[in-house]
Amino acid sequence: MIHLVLLFVYFYSVAPGVRAINTIIENKESIRETLKTNIQDVLLDNADSKVSKIEAEMLNLQKELIKKANARENYDDLTQAIEDLREQKRKVYADLAEKEGINKRIKEMRGFLDSQNLSITNYDEELVRKLIDKVVVYDDEIKIVFKSGIEV
């Protein structure tokens, strides 16, 4: 019974991981192009200009708020607009941090592809944990999702 369980675990978790990594190695040139495109997509999103625009808009609203406060006018709408801009700014920084993480994982995958010339023959727990994000099991297939975003 234990042998059946081990065979099941190997077939549904270990073997697909090894096959997926070998698929990446075998198709490394097209994978490099995909990674290059992914890096460009990450880098083209200029968070600095978004933050600068948000900060400029916040400064204008703050000046307007001061004018309304000095004139003893209601400025609740301006306060809400400033809070909304602060939230937008926080989201831009959160997106930037996420994209930096993605960029790091893409670079790790490129480094692996550059260093690996042969298919792997044995399961390597450290390599799998470094490269593979998750394994999705469907009724009729298994999908391996790499940390760089590539799916096999």
The number of domains is 2
Poorly predicted sequence stretches spanning 5 or more consecutive residues: 1-12
Q: Roughly what is the average pLDDT, rounded to an integer?
A: 78
Element string (H = helix, E = strand): HHHHHEE
Shape, principal axes of CA atoms: elongated
Rg, Cα atoms, Å: 24 Å
Largest sheet: 2 strands, antiparallel
- Oligomeric state of the chains? single chain
Coiled coil: 44-95
Organism: Criibacterium bergeronii
Keywords: Coiled coil
Protein name: OmpH family outer membrane protein
Task: Describe the fold and architecture.
Keywords: Coiled coil. It comes from Criibacterium bergeronii. This is OmpH family outer membrane protein. Residues 44-95 form a coiled coil. The protein has 152 residues and is mostly helical. The chain folds into 2 domains: 1-44 and 122-151, no CATH class; 46-117. Helices cover 74% and strands 7% of the residues. The protein contains 5 helices and 2 strands; from the N terminus they run αααααββ. It has helices at 2-26, 28-44, 47-70, 76-115, 125-131, and strands at residues 132-137, 142-146. The protein has a two-stranded antiparallel ribbon. Helix 3 packs antiparallel against helix 4. The longest helix has 40 residues, at 76-115. It is elongated, with a radius of gyration of 24 Å. Mean pLDDT is 78; it is low at 1-12.
